[in-house]
Amino acid sequence: MKMTMARREAVEGYIAISPWILGFILFTGGPILASIAISFSEWNFIEPAKFAGIANYTALFNDPLVWQALKVTTLYTIAAVPLGIVFGFWLAILLNQKIALLAVWRTIFYLPALVSGVAVATVWIWVLQPDFGVLNSLLREIGIEGPNWLFSQTWVIPSLVLMSLWGVGGGLIIYLSGLQGIPTEIFEAAQIDGANAVQRLFAITIPMMTPILFLQLVTGLIGAFQVFTSAYIMTKGGPGNASLFYVLYIYRNAFEYFDMGYAAALSWLLTLVIIATTLLVFWSARFWVYYDVDIKDF
Amino acid sequence: MSITHTEMPVRATRQQSAMFYRVNRVLLRALLYLTIAGGSLIVLIPFVWMVSASLKELNQIFIYPPVWIPNPVRWENYREALTTSLHPFIPRYFANTLYVAIFSVIGEAASCSLVGFGFARLKFPGRRFLFLLVLSTLAIPYYVVMIPQFALFRSLGWLNTFLPLIIPRFFATNGFYIFLFRQFFLRISPELFDAARIDGNSTWGIYARIVLPLSAPVFATVCILGFTFHWNDFLAPLLYLSRSYLHTVSIGLALFRGLQGVQWNHLMAASTVVMLPTMLLFFFFQRVFIQGTVITGVKG
Question: Which positions ≥6 away from B201 have C-beta within 8 Å?
């Protein structure tokens, strides 16, 4: 039997995406179902799993460390994500002003995005070192006695936010290309109408960039909820659980206390928080994101 | 200048205002460069501080005010950090990390490009739904699948092998890369596909002979993002590679820091060496990487 063109294309389509279908079943979809099952059981990896009903979930609501972890992670996210977008976008606007040596500046600001991980954490421990670190040394130059940064319950989260802001250049390439994609006719028209630079920024640049800002906000939020390496390396969650990031607490329950059921339940609470936040941002988009802005509308 | 209605009526005022405007402009430019230079200085300080400490003698590290230029310059720190008897496997860690990163990137580029091609250029029932499923996996935290995946790989006997880090990459597990490839392939002119079809190319012939040769930018973007991620990855090696001869550089560096008697100058030398490969990769392929990011990232 000869296959029709459309049928043949459909078969080829499924063949083309077959790696993803297999991968989704084996490494994402299957594990998700397994994770739901594990979250309703008691399992330490050694003895066979026992059904535990909703015990893990009730335990979760009575665990003060869960609330501490949620608090720490939320505070960090609320500070790091908006500040990161504001600074990153502002930097892109500055670099978009027909500037000399653009490639050099862009490379410098992009550097932190290339080196994330343990090496960065190690260097920042040394930068933030209270007595001999470069930050407090520079502050002392201008007469300020800097805090104990990573060793202070008050300053540990601001320290990590500061470190994340050091990497705002990671979004620079996307922002810059977005800015260059705004049709110059719009700016010229606005200029003729007498709009000054600030008015042009708020009436044209920012609205035209909202789809990109939206995407950065969503990915930024999802990423900020899952900070692990810097907490594990730099603070071990301390001092006094002041930097107990949520996923660090999941990791500890799974691979230090071997309480797989509880860790799985914890991970589902995080998933709910992330999905709720993402949906909220998507819902808010209708009020501030401008899609398909057509030049003819101006 | 064609703008007439905003010009000043009186000649003298006009000249004054033109001068005022020019001075203002110069001042603004100066402020702009000052801000940008200041910002890049802030970005560079931790790097400079690291390299400076990596070349110092230990007694120069713990002094105030800080010394920026080491005197004497102590290059031996690098040799000592990389071949320390405290931690004898460091060259091996580089080989391990390179091995994992290269094979992971090959797997991701091969599988995600094929899947992206399917979603961009082939019509099949359920395509829209399945693509939405790909995107929605991006919101699922890795920590949900971490435990079942670990149990799976443990039952396969894959603990303390590189397989859990590499094999899933050949199954297009990164939805973001699928998205990037799809966006790029959507922008290739459809006439090109029709022409190739008329010339007698099969679908796979079109993928291999038309799509791949045109797609260097998106491959560069995915390869650099992927390599950087795998080079710096900490969690997966922490979970799966507990034997010391299997460690990657990030695990090695974390352990190195935890050792008794490790000196900061050695630690900074090791950090510098760990940071170098991804920076070099970016310097060499910067142009095509940016091209790929721009095409896929902005214009859907």
Answer: B209, B210
Chain B residue with CA closest to A167: the answer is B43
Separation of alpha carbons B9 and B188, rounded Å: 54
Cα–Cα distance, B22 to B291 (Å, whole number): 36
Its ipTM equals: 0.88
pLDDT tens-place string over residues A21-69? 999 999 999 999 999 999 999 888 888 888 888 889 999 999 999 999 9
What b-and-e string marks burial along A180-203, b requiring 16 or more CB atoms within 10 Å of the CB?
eebeeebeeebeeeebeeeeeeee
pLDDT of residue B173: 93
Indicate the residue of B123, B145, B203 with minimum beta-carbon distance to A28: B145
For residue A23, CA distances in Å to A16, B174, B175, B190 come to 13, 10, 11, 29
Size of interface A-B (CB pairs under 8 A): 257
A172's CB contacts (< 8 A; 6+ apart) are: A88, A91, A92, A95, A106, A109, A110
Nearest by CB: B147 against A35, A118, A127? A35
Distance from CA of B11 to the nearest CA of A (A): 21
| A90/A93 Cα distance (integer angstroms) | 5
Residue B62: which of A130, A234, A121, A146 has the closest Cα? Answer: A130
pTM over 0.90: no
Asked whether the bond before B72 is cis by omega within 30 degrees of 0, the reply is: yes
**Residue B2 confidence (pLDDT):** 44
Task: Find the helix or strand (DSSP H, E) in which A50 lies.
Answer: strand A50-51
For the cut 60, the answer to whether the pLDDT of residue B29 exceeds it is yes
- Inter-chain residue contact B148 with A38, CB threshold 8 Å: yes
Average pLDDT, chain B: 86
Distance CA B143, CA A250 (A): 8
User: In whole angstroms, what is the distance from residue A13 CA to residue B142 CA?
Assistant: 28
Helix spans in chain B (H): 11-54, 58-61, 76-82, 90-121, 127-136, 142-155, 163-166, 175-186, 190-198, 203-206, 212-214, 216-232, 235-240, 249-258, 264-297
Residue with tokens 């079109």: B206
What is the distance between the alpha carbons of residues A65 and B202, in angstroms, rounded to a whole number?
58
Closest chain B CA to residue A175: B298
C-alpha to C-alpha distance for B18 and B24, rounded to whole angstroms: 10
Residue A2's identity, in one-letter code, is: K
B12 touches chain A (CB under 8 A): no
Euclidean distance between CA atoms A205 and A93, whole angstroms:
9
